[in-house]
Amino acid sequence: MMMPSIFGENLFDEFMNDFSFPNVGKVLYGKHEPAIMKTDVKEKDNIYEVDVDLPGFKKEDIHMKLEDGYLTIQAAKGLDKDTKDKDGKYIRRERYSGNVSRSFYVGDKVQKEEIHPKFENGILSFTVPKEKKAVEEKSNCIAIEG
Q1: Predicted TM-score (pTM) of this structure
Q2: Which one of 2.30.130.10, 3.90.550.10, 3.30.565.10, 2.60.40.790 gives the CATH number of domain 37-129?
Q3: pLDDT per residue over 110-124, tens digit each?
């Protein structure tokens, strides 16, 4: 089926370029931009505060796993793309549907009980304790008494 040019791939991108808005996401992530979990990490004294954007996802769609020092976040939604309901068939869908996943190395000593996630308004927030480094004593000196 032929689609009118108004439903072309870059309709809104070209429109917004006329207003000189930089398309930073397109430059950084290319055509996979909607699938990237945009993340902010803030360092504090003993912890890292992490905020992950997951717009349109529900709490039930998100899973976190800690394994071998890696914290993995996975989310999935709306995988049925050819949906037709009583109101008709979609001609264009721009909102993301599919699977996304992202992993962070948090250290081997971090336990899952130390991570307290909260999902609110499309943002997954959690803290991760900083990995404590073992202090090595490298003293080759011999103590002299007297």
Answers
A1: 0.63
A2: 2.60.40.790
A3: 999 999 999 999 999
